[in-house]
Amino acid sequence: MEDQDKLQEDAKEEYAEENEQEERDHREKICYICHRPESKAGPMLDMPGGMYMCHHCMQKAFDTISRSNIDLSRFPAMPLFRMDTGSMAGSAQENPKKQKSRKRPEKPALTMKDIPAPHQIKARLDEYVIGQEKAKKAIAVAVYNHYKRAFLGGDQEDEDGVVIQKSNILMIGPTGSGKTYLVKTLARLLDVPLAIADATSLTEAGYIGDDIESVVSKLLAAADNDVERAQKGIIFIDEIDKIAKKKQTTTRDVSGESVQQELLKLLEGSVVEVPIGSNQKNAMTPTASVNTDDILFICGGAFPDLEGIIKERLSRKTTMGFGAVLKDSYDQDPNILSQVTGEDLRAFGMIPEFLGRLPITVTLQGVDEEMLVRILREPKNAIIRQYEKLLAMDEVKLVFEDDALEWIAREALKRGTGARALRAVMEELMLDIMYEIPKDPNIGSVVVTRPYLEKNGGPLIQMRGVEPGTEKPAVN
């Protein structure tokens, strides 16, 4: 009996080893240095310890060693490799590359037929973004024209001598007005890679912080190191107002005006060498040439105090006697940002050359209580719908009364962070419900009421098989 058990155990171990070997054979090899898969980097060299290295990284390693004048005779155990491309090509022919079962399907490069018309772009944005009608229309037109320019050959002159200049976008709006969300939604709808960078982390080359080219590295990573896809992508630089020129300074402004200066070539269109699989350049990291000419740059910021600059400019134009009345009307104007000009932005601290590379200015308005209520329930991926779906997995129906939604919107508005406060408020008020409801499988529905939100009782609970309208408040 013991012999039979031992035979079964041996058979199981042998079967497990065979499965493991088969799994290893079908797993795509990844370069230990640049992290590119074999399908991107080409044939891999097997290294000790079960590691792999592509021929590009291996060549860089040997070039680094040769430049550093290291005496290889001091490393007798180090085997010598022949690293010429011809020998690599030959080995690839002798050992055909196996079709990997886990290979990620490559996305085709963007074509003109993939770009919807402006009205279609706006209609799709309407499904996810509430309000900001003028901003959505302006962005839809700008994006459509940008990709038409890209497919016409960028800044190359056509047979008629017409050169279409690049049009990047500057988005201005208070915190929580939806700048980042709008850009994310746009990139998802167009199915193009998106990189989001924070302008506050950017510094002039040679100083502590991220250099300007790091934003292109992020885009290349978002495109799975596919240069062609990356060159049709979108880069969103947030907090752009934080690199405004400082009014008075006796030291070099390495994170303000200098960053604006270094961004100029990137925005206008240039070829940059960026590391693959890393944000830092070094001798061991492979690089790729990325042309930013067809990349759409969108810069966004809240621009605090810009409203005051606009009001001051408008007030200077008023006539005596009526000036005070007009100034008061400007103070009450919720859409004052829509009257922004280049003069106002220069007064804020943005240099003229930088503004020239961002010819399209889009302003977003702050959210009010009514808009927050709509944001809660109207978009396709509204927060309310997300919680409804989560509880539906427990076969529980979730309902919010109208006055409860108004209470949530009002509470979020108090926090001063716009629409992003909705998630925080919802997480707090739904904590007890999401914790308690799964305990009882007999619960069929939960109704969130305003009294519950105001700590005057619990939500209305309806048990399965009970007639509607007979809900009872839950015990706190």
UniProtKB/TrEMBL annotation:
Domain Clp ATPase C-terminal intervals: 367-453
GO MF assignments: ATP binding; ATP hydrolysis activity; ATP-dependent protein folding chaperone; peptidase activity; unfolded protein binding
AAA+ ATPase domain segment(s): 165-324
Any one annotated GO CC term: HslUV protease complex
Region Disordered: start-end pairs: 1-26, 86-109
Record field: compositional bias (Basic and acidic residues): 1-14
CDD domains: RecA-like_ClpX
InterPro entries reported for this sequence: AAA+_ATPase, ATP-dep_Clp_protease_ClpX, ATPase_AAA_core, Clp_ATPase_C, Clp_protease_ATP-bd_su_ClpX, P-loop_NTPase
Keywords on record: ATP-binding, Chaperone, Hydrolase, Nucleotide-binding, Protease, Zinc
A GO BP entry: proteolysis involved in protein catabolic process
Protein known as: ATP-dependent Clp protease ATP-binding subunit ClpX
Species: Candidatus Enterocloster faecavium
Higher taxonomy: Bacteria, Bacillati, Bacillota, Clostridia, Lachnospirales
